[in-house]
Amino acid sequence: MTSREVLTAVPVAFHPNGELDLEGSRDILRFVAKSGNEGAFVLGTTGEFPSLSHEERTALVTASIEELSEHMRVVVHVGSASTYESLRLVAQAREAGATEIAVLTPYYLKATDAALLDYYTQITAAADGLDVYIYVFRAVSGNFISNELMATLAHLPNVVGAKVSDEPLEQIRAYREVVPEGFLIYTGSDRELGRAEEYGAQGVISGVSSVFPKPFRALADAHAGGDATEIEKAQFAVDEVVDAIAGNMGRMKAAYGVLGVNGGTTRMAIEPPTDEVVAEIRRVAALYA
User: Which residues, other chains included, contact 30 with Cβ-Cβ below 8 Å and sequence gap of 6+?
Assistant: First the structure.
C-alpha cells in the first residue's frame, strides 16, 4: 500500500455567464493529467458539484474518464442529498467507465446514524464492480460519520476506503483503529501530506495540487528519501501554495489564468480574488509552477 499518495481534486470551468465551459474543463483535466499525481477526484466539492445538473455531470464524468484514465486513477464523486439521486449518479459513473466512486453523506438536513447506514447500504449494494469511498465532510454537509458507524460502513460490500475532509488528523487515527487492514483513508487537508501517514492515512485529496502539483510531488519524494533538510524545504513550498490558494476555487481559476490554462470562472457564490491575492498567486507560481 503506497503512502503519501496525492489525488487531485479537480475544478470545473464555467463561462462568465455561469454556463458550463466543457472545453475549459477539459483543459484543466489535461493539465492535471500531466501532474504525476496518483489520481484525480472529480465532481466533488472543488468541482462545485451542488451546482451541476445531471446532464452536465454526464458530460463532465465522460470527459474526466477520457482525459485522465490513461494517466491516473479517477475517483468520481456521486454523493447527493438523497439516496435516489446518488443511485442515479452511481449508474451514470458506471456507464461512463468509472471504477472508483466516492459518496458524500447526505447534506442540508441532519441525518441519524440509522438513516446514514440505510443510505450507504443501498448505494454500496448498487455499486457492484466499483470501489466505494465513504466521504466525510461535516463542515459543509452537516452530517458526520461516527467511529462506530465507520466501523460498520467499512464492512459493507464494495467499500474500500474513506475521504475525510476538515477533520483533525486525530480523527484519521480514530477511524484507522476501527476499520479493516487494507482500508484506504485520505485526508482532505492539503498541507498534511507529510504527516498524514503517521496517523494512518495513505495520502491527501488536494484541490491545491490541481494548480500547483510540483510542491506536493517534491514533498512525497522528500519523505521517501528521508532527508530532513529536503523535507523541510518541500513542506515550506507546500505551505506557501496552500496559503496562496486557501482551498478557494476562485483563486484556483486565477492561478490557471496565470499558468496559461483555460480554467474559466466559478459558478457558485465565490468572491473573485483581489489584486493583492492575484499578485501573491503570481509570486508562488514563479517559484513553484
Answer: 67
Give the domain CATH number at 76: 3.20.20.70
Give pLDDT tens digits for 65-115: 999 999 999 999 999 999 999 999 999 999 999 999 999 999 999 999 999
Count other Cβ atoms within 10 Å, centred on residue 181. Answer: 6
Read out DSSP for the chain?
--SSEEEEEPP--B-TTS-B-HHHHHHHHHHHHTS--SEEEESSTTTTGGG--HHHHHHHHHHHHHHHTTTSEEEEE---SSHHHHHHHHHHHHHHT--EEEEEPP-SS---HHHHHHHHHHHHHT-TTSEEEEEE-HHHHS----HHHHHHHTTSTTEEEEEE-SS-HHHHHHHHTTS-TT-EEEES-GGGTTTGGGGT--EEEESGGGT-HHHHHHHHHHHHHT-HHHHHHHHHHHHHHHHHHTT-HHHHHHHHHHHT----B-SSS-PPPPHHHHHHHHHHHHHH-
Using N-to-C axis directions, what is the helix angle for 213-225 and 228-245, rounded to 10°? 160
Provide the number of structural domains found in the chain: 1
Whether this prediction's pTM lies above 0.90 is answered by yes
How much is the mean pLDDT over the chain?
97
Q: Is residue 84 domain-resident? A: yes
What residue numbers bound the domain in which 49 lies?
5-211
Strand partners, 73: 39
pLDDT for position 1: 44
Residue 269 located in a structural domain: no
Amino acid at 38: E
Question: Which one, of 123, 117, 124, lies nearest residue 150 by Cα?
Answer: 117
